[in-house]
Amino acid sequence: MMAMHGSSAPPADLDLSRSKATEKGVFLASVEPEAGSFKQGELHSWVLTVKKPDGTPVEDATIAVDGGMPDHNHGLPTSPQATAHLGEGRYRVEGVKFNMGGWWVLRFAISSPAGDDEAVFNLTL
């Protein structure tokens, strides 16, 4: 019975980079835990940095946050929100929680006068 509820291993070629071009290439995005690290089961904040392809910080973005566990087909146990613009294209995202080990996805929908795009980051715990 436990095998039915366990997670399978993430794909061997899973992209775990924390910096990348967004899906359509409108922005360059990077994400990191605000405290430098995070623990399973605890609420934590992340910082999403958004730049134009030429490296110019995006100061006027609206950020929506989503995510979940692809292996388990469920979303995040919380509803993270972008709560502050920190300057230099950096946005604080609060209320992130990973309640179990495995493969997680954080998805950021980014909207600004420069365009609309999405950044998807894979994490493993």
TrEMBL record:
Domain YtkA-like, residue spans: 37-106
Pfam families noted in UniProt: YtkA
Protein name as annotated: FixH family protein
Species this chain originates from: Allomesorhizobium camelthorni
